[in-house]
Fold each of these.
Amino acid sequence: MKSIKRLSILLKPYRLRILAIALMLLTLTTIDMIFPAIIRQVIDIGVVGGQSHYTALAAGILLGMGLFKSLISFGNRYNSEWLAHTVAYDLRNQLYNHIQRLSFSYHDHTASGQLISRVIEDVRSLQNFTGQGFIELTRVVVLMIGIIFILITTNPLLAVISLLPLIPLTLMNTAFGRRMGKMFLAVDQTLGELNSRLQENVNGVQVVRAFAREAFEIERFKAVNQELYKKQIRVVQEMARVMPTSSLLVGLSTLLILWFGGNMVINGQITLGELVAFNSYVLMLSGPAQQLSWLINAAGETSAGLQRTFEVLDQQSEIRSPAQPVFLPKLRGEVRFENVSFRYRNEKKDALHDINLTVQPNQIVALVGPTGSGKTSIVNLIPRFYDVTSGAVKIDGVDVRQLDLKTLRSQIGIVLQTSLLFSATIRENIAYGRPNASMEEIIAAAKAAQAHEFIMEMSKGYDTVVGERGVTLSGGQRQRVAIARAILMDPRILILDDSTSSVDTQTEHLIQEALRRLMKGRTTFVIAQRLSTVRQADLIVVLDHGRIVQQGTHAELLQQPGLYRQIYDLQLRDQERFQEEMEQLQAQELKKVNR
Amino acid sequence: MTVQTAPTQFSQVTPPQLEDLPYKDYDPEVTRQMMGFIKPYGTKILISVFYMMLSSLAAVVGPYLLQIAIDDGISVGNLVTLRNIALLFLLAQGIQWFFNYIRVKMMAEVGQSIIYDIRAAIFKHLQELSLSFFSRYSAGRITARMMSDVSVLRDFVTWTLLAVARDIFTLGGIVGTMLLMNVQLSLLTFAVLPIMAVMTFAFRRRARDNYRRARMAISWVNSVLAENINGVRVVQSFSREDTNYAYFRDVVNGYNLKANLKAARLSSIFFPTVDFLGTLAMAVVIYVGGSALLGERLTAGVLTAFVLYIGRFFDPIRDLSMRYDGFLSATASADRILGLINAPVEVQDKPGAGELPPIKGEVRFENVSFHYSDDDTLVLQDINLHVQPGETVAFVGKTGAGKTTMIKLLARFHDPTSGRILIDGHDIAQYTQHSLRSQMGIVLQDPFLFSGTVRENIRFGRLEATDAEVEAAAAAVGADEFIRSLRLGYETPVEEGGAVLSVGQRQLISFARALLADPRILILDEATSSIDTHTENIIQQALARLLQGRTAFVIAHRLSTIINADRIVVIQNGRIVEQGRHQELLEKGGVYQRLYAMRFQEEE
């Protein structure tokens, strides 16, 4: 009920057009019902009655009505399609715009794949239903009522007799529709299994080859393939039962009309024309009788889809600019955490607990700690991806919740380990945060990010399309484009992750160099994995279980026992050893030279 | 067909091109090869066509019987004729029902069987294809072949093939019966047929383009939408909401609306026009027949039958025109499927290749050179390397130096262009791939886990291993502890790609998998991604355990691994330039030392 109300809001701008469509539909159905009556007159008056001039008249009327019907039909078809596509267009826009503004919390708890397929499927089902289903349903209902009325007024007995087979027809198709719905669902599920089996095999092809498990995989695939075969056969067998039986029942109607109606004609109870018209009317009904259940099912599915859609649209993002926002278009970059505690939605434990931290403009802060210690949570609070549970995060002394969101975020740059690029050219990806940047600025950013060189090696340079439909960049290349993207924004506050995954030593070197340039002159928060970063940091914050356990510089923290020393021993010492050996080597070189 | 380029915010990204939907001309070779799949069911298909003929003719005869019943029964008051005709009518309905029923059942089996065969054939072939194939042919494309193309084919085999037969029989039957009833009037009525046929085919051609454009447009909409949702965190980070919304609304979604409305306009004109042609034919029949212009008065029965037949004219014509499209898209799908099935297998077992006997693990590269089949640049040049059983060899070098290629050749994912690789003195090219790889363990950089339980994933290494052996392997690499802490322990399901586990945990599972296989030769591509302290500690111990007592080749990233290796092999531009232990190589001051220095520099 609620979704019908929402739908009517969606349809409101088009109510005149809907009215026009309804009127045209009514006209069309009426004309459809007049045709058999004309044939009946032709037979009774023209053929049986011998008044041949009447047939000429009838032919003329038929032609005129046919022309009229075609014109109306054109208007009706086009306008209903127009309505369907326009409503779908509107709804898709609304969904797109709404979803992209929902908070991180919402997206954390919603599987994106499901969300996407829901938007796609539900909008499509609404579109099909408004375009065809709804119109057809109305037509079917009007037609059924009209025809049954005509039949009963012509001859109630023959009407009942001839409509008899249509009752099992309707019932059978209704049951069929329900069963088919379930069967298709089962087929879809198995199809999904087949698909994931295949995907996995292809994605894991190296493992399959490495362990020589091809035969095993073929067997596993065969099992699903057979299952699918069985389920699909079941569907078609169901069709094989129902479809021919439907046409048999329709044929039975004609047979009953022929036999009983024929007798009535001979006995003078009805005319021959009426008999023929009767048959035409019943044939006209047989289609709708079979469709009705499908249409009702479709209506049910559409309304369920609408309900889901409206659920998404009803989600409110809790992260929004306040009514009277503070605009700070030029941040100094002082960041302060005051007694901040934070808990993710639906979690039982705090992710951050009583954090107090003051960062001066242009300081580099390294966040260090085991996985799950709260490093990412801390940085997520600065651009207000989440709101604190208690306490406050203040930038330049103002609570981030009082700031204008767009102004705030446009001054914060973020570079993470896995850098997502969009299906667009490299140039557009770099300019993502500043679509109006000039080409010179873009190139300068790419150069600073050590990306210019590899971009120029590509056949189309900056106009190379990357992403799903374009060139696939390596992890290291993607990361450098993401760095350029952040550089171009020239953010006052920078959030980054210094880890480099799956890149060789040389690329790693380039990336670290690019990051170093990026950090200069900005307040920087680094989720640090590298010795070079922690050494460079003005402040190291060591986190454990959501609390700050140590703070200080590298040298200071190494002096004290604690988590930092442990982490250093396990992870960073390896990197230190490189350095020591190199120093030894250099010393040896030096000796050689001195000698 | 050309696609209009919409003005875009992302200027270079236009609606997806039609490359994946080529409507190619009819290609007899495709048909010939597809016939190979259809042949086993040839007899059944022929029988089905015969059934189809019977049921179509039984359907067509209906109005004719009605005519006789009216003219010879009802009009003249002959109850016997009426009864006989009614019985005949019942018989025709019965025939139609029966043959339709067995035909649909039969063809459904045929269609599904063919599709089953094709899917199995594709999958089997995928298991034989070389790895390089998978780097060219994305998982998405393979899925598209297996899912959508195969479905197109299935619909074609199950429905289209026989529908064509039905359309032809029905159309022929109608024309024949009408002629039988009244030649002149029939000919007059048929005058609209060519108009209908020409219009229909012209319409289909244009509609096809329109619908394809509309389909493309919606898939573009969907992919832009999906990308925005997947990347929503980046979108918000860069405050791109307004720009992206305007782009989506005006460009992408707007293009879709336009494309759909264009398609709708055409079909809105077409169907009413065809409808009108039907009415025109009917008016002609009534006028000419009723006014006795042709000398003979129309009987009520003939008029009724004609009206019914005219109503059925159009369906087969429209269907036939649609079938042609169905045929074209089925051919296109078949073509793409065959492209996959016919993809050449690069590494094949030699005819009569034997089983490699159990090995000790001595490995020798003899003058091995290699280049890819589509590129003449040598990736490896004149490699000579002799590794003793039990030795750990670390490959070191820049990306693209040839480290991975060395490993791929050893596992025989490719065959050397020249030279030989010998294991215990046996040339590996002379034995089956299966017998080689089942004695070899390979641990990849990205530890891929299959959906299934943790236990099943470890058991993938040796299918016949007992539960106790699986757990022992896990314990040996230090994975037992965290596995037991999982919700269902060893029976915890792992999502596709192992999403619930951390990278480090997945690595440990892949180590256990390799350890369970207990290979004589181990190949390890070390992961570089950062791992938390605790896990890193365990992994270093696990590695030592894994490498122990076997010949191992490691593409090394951890310093500890490199230092502990029995031998470091430095590869540069496809050649081995240095070999030796860590300290030796450092003191030598060559390539290794420079590579080493590069890592060092950034620490400053």
Amino acid sequence: MAYLEINHVVRKFGGLVAVNDITVGTEQGEIFGLIGPNGSGKTTLFNAINHYYPANSGEIIFKGKPITKKSTHEICKLGIGRTFQVVKPLRRMTVLENVMTGAFLRINDARKARDKALEVLDFCELMYRKDMLGKDLPIADKKRMEIARSLAGEPELMLLDEAAAGLNPKEIDAVMAIVKKIRDSGITCFVVEHVMKFIMGISDRMMCINFGSEIARGTPKEIASHPEVIKAYLGEEYAKGAAG
Amino acid sequence: MAEIKIMAKKSWFLPAILGIVVVAIPPFLGGYIQHLLILMMMWITMATAWNLLGGYTGCVSFGHCVFFGLGAYGGGLLLLHWGISPWWGMIAGPILAVIIGIPIGLICFRLRGPYFALALLALGEAFRIVFTNWVSVLGGACGVVSSRTWGVEKLPYYYIALAIAALSVYVVYRLMHSKYGYYFVSIREDQDAAEALGIPTTRYKMYALIPSAFFTGLAGAVWMNYIAYIDPEVVFNLSGISIMMILAVMVGGAGTLWGPILGGAIFVLLNEGIRAAVGPISYLIFMVIACLLIMFLPDGIIGDWAKIKRAFRRKKPAYVGGE
């Protein structure tokens, strides 16, 4: 049985089927990559997992327990942390306060939460920004702060939604190193990403979706050469070339 | 929350001086000044209470007169029906405000932003109308008349109001330096992010509402005992209570500890303090000052303190507009 099981999940927005019958599972301790062209339903799948936009049908099971009906904050408390594609910093709180807010999920005492937050900031190499306000951070650090904030709540599974989008190559390398470090510390990572260098480099297994449906699954290498994937990203012509 | 830290750096020097002044000086002041100080303490309590929900948690309430009125009527109804001393209202009033506040919160916290504000505005008006017209149970438009326990002596009322104001500030201070404070501010800054961080946002809004309703109700109970007369048109007044609480906080600085203290004091000084000298225009003066402050210092005097200092240092206008 998989660690996080997603069984036949469907999410519709009016007539648009954003996620169409996706079934996938992640194993404990791996980095699972999810790719797909713009609008293919990656973020919607994340939103279904943490009940931000609940699934219309299907079932989501985490560590053997169904979480489909649980609310967003309960799911977080169960150990599923997430970051947002469109970053949501707590704007008028400092970086340290942002991360402390995450740490309060498991720690009630303010001083201990502060220690935990400092530890996580150190882990994410964000210590030098700790007294800056959330709104004043550059985008790369906002994304890293989202990771730190979620990590402070000691999740067992992290949903990382485009942690590398919009970053320069050097910043991407840094985030890659952090995500690998997170995996090595025993936290399962479910990663949505557009930056191929990033996701191909870190994923243990991958899935590609398009128009809400799965089109390929396998190792990064298999995905990269899969004709359906190439068709989805580059068009029919290139897919033929790859197959032939 | 950054603001709290700025104030904290000055340690206990300023609060200690202020504490000595407000405790030691009033016995030597005239009756009218004492009257002003009592009102000031009442408004500081109310502004601090409003600030907890509106300033820190971001649920801007236009209906806090509900809690003020219920606080006042808690004692008033005991007197009206059973002839019990309105001093029991100091317990009954705030508890009544909390009991009524809980279902209000459970229903209205489903709404966000302007919708929440409008729902509470309507609720405040609804309470005013019900209390005006339900004569048999609530006394109707005539209100409730009691008598002052200590006659013309104002000092006991002052110390009670001072103790309540100090308690409200202390409670808010402690809350804001704990997990609750961080959760309140994170709900204000981004409710969706707060949910995703595992914060049950509706429950924490209730945790902000309950002390807020309690202290607003307590201020209402002080009013009942001090003024010794309440009627629905006064205690459930939209512009006189609900809006003034917001303006007092805005002037001082929403989401800061010292903002409501300063704002409440300035409000009473301008509204009541200069009324004797200039007449009803005092109201207008406060409004004009509030407008100017909101335009140029949108975070209030305390919230934009850095901006004010910068303006004076450079001898030219501060950066206007802000966030």
